[in-house]
Design a protein that fits this description.
Layout (H helix, E strand, L loop, with lengths): L6 E2 L1 H6 L6 E5 L9 H8 L6 E2 L22 H10 L8 E5 L7 H10 L5 E4 L2 H8 L23 E2 L1 H7 L5 E5 L3 H4 L17 E2 L17 H4 L8 E5 L6 H10 L5 E4 L2 H12 L1
Parallel strand pairs: 1-5, 2-3, 2-4, 4-5, 6-10, 7-8, 7-9, 9-10
Length: about 280
């Protein structure tokens, strides 16, 4: 049975916009123009929404290894959430972007990792919202909340774990990138093309349609071949869009998904060392 608690409709959000137990977070971002998301937020956002930036808030600085979007400092994220009024395990957080869940799902996964189980994505994202409902330039005032992260280490793996586990029976390694990148036909970002040996390809864009609407009824069928796996280790280019697939797995009722946070950008950083 599809787990629809992870998704809210535009209508539901409009009807619950002023619920004191609801916090909305805008996660719009552009990998090619890192300042664009914040500019778009300032130009207009869903009323009451706060903003979190992929580079500044949802990642830590890039190092030699660890990928292009290493996980952020968890205590810093917790403090930012407190300033939005988030109450740990009480507040429902609704996250949205304008990129088919690419960045809002990163926040969803981070909150799962931090032990906050009350996060949903906005079906259709900002572009569908603004067609039907009002937007504002008004910035929300800081609030007071409490957030004590309870890290769930079992939902993340590092490169050493991937190397040990990827060929074991019962383990499925999922590459979330577009098929041409998985096949090594095109590599626009990383220094080496291809994929981790043994990985199967489930492109993250298959989770939604062009209008950022989730293909809710297709999620269970989509993961039919991995539903009995002991673990599903998921990666992408830098640990961001892999979270769309992890969200999709949860939607399908599969709770064995784990993020290889460094993803292909981390994996090939060691291949570069060896060349």
């Amino acid at each position: 049975m599809t787990n629809t608690n992870l998704l809210v409709s535009l209508q539901w959000l409009a009807e619950n916009l002023h619920d004191s137990n609801l916090i909305i977070i805008d996660c719009r971002f552009s990998l090619t123009d890192p300042e664009l998301g914040k500019k778009q937020y300032l130009q207009g956002h869903i009323p009451g929404a706060f903003y979190l930036d992929l580079n500044r808030d949802l990642s830590s600085p890039v190092a030699k290894h660890g990928g292009r979007h290493p996980l952020p400092n968890i205590q810093e994220v917790a403090h930012k959430l407190e300033m939005m009024g988030v109450k740990f395990q009480e507040t429902l957080i609704v996250a949205y972007d304008d990129s088919r869940f690419a960045f809002s799902s990163r926040l969803w996964w981070l909150l799962e990792y931090m032990g906050h189980q009350k996060t949903a994505l906005l079906d259709g994202g900002f572009s569908q919202w603004e067609k039907q409902y009002p937007v504002t330039k008004e910035l929300p005032n800081p609030k007071s909340g409490f957030f004590e992260p309870q890290i769930q280490p079992e939902i993340m793996v590092d490169i050493d774990t991937v190397k040990v586990k990827k060929d074991l029976p019962g383990i499925v390694l999922v590459d979330s990138r577009d098929s041409d990148r998985y096949l090594g036909k095109n590599e626009p970002i990383d220094p080496i093309a291809g994929h981790i040996p043994g990985a199967v390809n489930y492109p993250w864009k298959q989770v939604t349609d062009e209008n950022s609407l989730a293909k809710v009824d297709e999620q269970i069928k989509r993961w039919e071949e991995v539903k009995n796996a002991e673990e599903v280790i998921v990666y992408c280019g830098s640990g961001v869009t892999a979270c769309v697939n992890l969200w999709s797995l949860k939607m399908a009722g599969i709770n064995t998904g784990k993020l290889y946070a460094g993803s292909w950008s981390d994996w090939c950083s060691y291949l570069v060392d060896n060349n």
